[in-house]
Amino acid sequence: MFRRCELAPSAPRPAIPFASGVLTSARHHRFVPRVLLLMPSATYRAPDFLEAARALDVEVVVGCEEPQALSGLMGTRALRLPLDDPDAAAKAIVEHDSLTPLDAIVAVDDQGAVAAAAASELLGLHHNPPRAVAATRDKLAMRALLAQHEVPQPAYGTIPAGARPAEVALAVKTVGLPCVVKPTTLSASQGVLRADSLEGAAAVAQRVRRIAIGAGVDPEAPLLVERFVPGQEVALEGLLDDGALDVLAVFDKPDPLDGPAFEETIYVTPSRLTHRDIEAVVDATRKATRALGLREGPLHAELRLRDARAWVIEVAARTIGGLCSRALAFSTGRTLEQLVLAHAIGSPMGPLQREDRASGVLMLPIPRAGTLLGVEGVSRALAVPGVSDVQITIAPGREVVPVPEGNRYLGFVFARAKRPADAETALRRALSLLEVRIEG
Ligand SMILES: Nc1ncnc2c1ncn2[C@@H]1O[C@H](COP(=O)(O)OP(=O)(O)O)[C@@H](O)[C@H]1O
Ligand SMILES: [Mg+2]
Known about the structure:
By secondary structure, the protein is α+β, with helices and mostly antiparallel strands. Among the domains are: 95 residues, 3-Layer(aba) Sandwich (Rossmann fold), CATH 3.40.50.20; 73 residues, Dna Ligase, domain 1 (2-Layer Sandwich); 84 residues, Aldehyde Oxidoreductase, domain 3, CATH 3.90.1170. It has eleven helices and 19 strands. The strands form five sheets. A four-stranded parallel sheet has the order 3-2-1-4. A four-stranded antiparallel sheet has the order 5-8-6-7, sandwiched between helices. It is globular, with a radius of gyration of 22 Å. The site of magnesium ion has 2 residues, from loops.
C-alpha cells in the first residue's frame, strides 16, 4: 500500500532505502515516509506496530475511533476516523492527506482493513482492491467467491433472520451434519458454534443470533451455516506483493478444535505436517487469495487438512491476531510488523526467512464468566525452560466472558525451542502452572 509512483502495474517496485537522511519518500520528497496506521480501539496490535515504525524510522499517524482509548500513543499524531464506516473513513483520510501527505495506509486489524483499501485506492497508493478486502470481512461473500473459483471449502448455506426451526433444519440438511453456525462478520471465534443434530442446530442458531446482535451485528443479517470439516487445523501467515504470496510461517494448532465452541489455544511453527500437506495448504491459500482478488500486504489464512486436501476455513487481509505475531522472528532480526510496514512503503524487505528455532504461542483461555481476580503463577510459568514471555492482557477487576459469547483472551504465553514438540511441551507446562482466579 505505497504510493504507486506512476509505475505500470507490473513494473519493478522502487527501492527506498531506510537510512536516516536518505530521501525516502519519492512522491513527496520528504526524508521520512509517513504511514497511517488504522487501529480499532480494542486492538492488541498498537505497541508492536508503533515499535516497528520506530525501528524503521517511519513517521506514524494513527487513525482510530477514540484516540484517547488507545494506550501508548503518547506523542503520536492521531486522526479520529469512523472505522465502521469505510467510505466516510476513506473520505476523511483523503482530506487529511491533502494537508499531510501519506505514503502508505496500513490496517493493524480486521476492522480498518476496508477503509485502508478504499482510501489507498482514492490516493493512488498500492493496495488491495477494496472489494477483495470487503469479501474477507464478510464470511458469506468470501464463501461465494471461493465457490465460484472452486477453492476447496466446506459446503455452506445461510440461515435468514427470523428463521423458524424448520427453516434452520432445511439449511442444515443441505450442508450436512455436523455443522458450524457463525455470524458473517465477527472474529476471534465469537459466535462460532458446532451443532450435531437438526434440533440442536435450531438452538445453536438462536444462541449465535443472540451473540451476534449483542456484538452489534445487524439483526437482519443472515447467519452462515457450514459443514463441519474434521481434521488438523493450521494457520498460514503470508505477505502478498504484487499478487505473489510469500509464505512467512505455517503454524500447527495441535489442540483438537472440535467444538462445540472453538477457543484457540496453541500455535506452533514450523509445522510438523508432511511436505505434501504443507504444499496442499500453500496451494489452497494461493487459490483463495486469487479467488478473492487479494494482491498486497499481510495475509492470515486458516485451513483444515482432511483426506490429504486442505480446506479453507477463512482468509483475512491482516496479520495474525492478538499478540501472536511475537511468536514470529525473522533471520534479518525484523518483526512481522516491520515486514508489513516495509512492504507498505515499498522498501526492500530482505530475506523473509523465519529464525532457525521452533516457536509457539498459547492463547490463555477464559475458563468461565465472572470478574477476573488475577492470574497467579506467572513467575513459575516464566521459569519453565523454553518459555520466553508471559503477557496477561486483562486487568484484575475486569469482567471476563469466554468464547463463544466473548472474543478476548486472558493473555499470551510464548516459547522457543529447538524442536516444535519442545515448544509445545513448554507451553503446556506453563499453562499447568498458571492459576486463573475468577469471582462470581
Ligand atoms: N466449517 C468448519 N469446520 C470446522 N471447523 C470450523 C468451521 N468453521 C469454523 N471452524 C472453527 O471455528 C474457528 C473460528 O471460525 P472462523 O470461521 O475462522 O471465524 P473467526 O473469524 O471467528 O475466526 C476456526 O478456526 C475453526 O477452528
Ligand atoms: Mg478465524
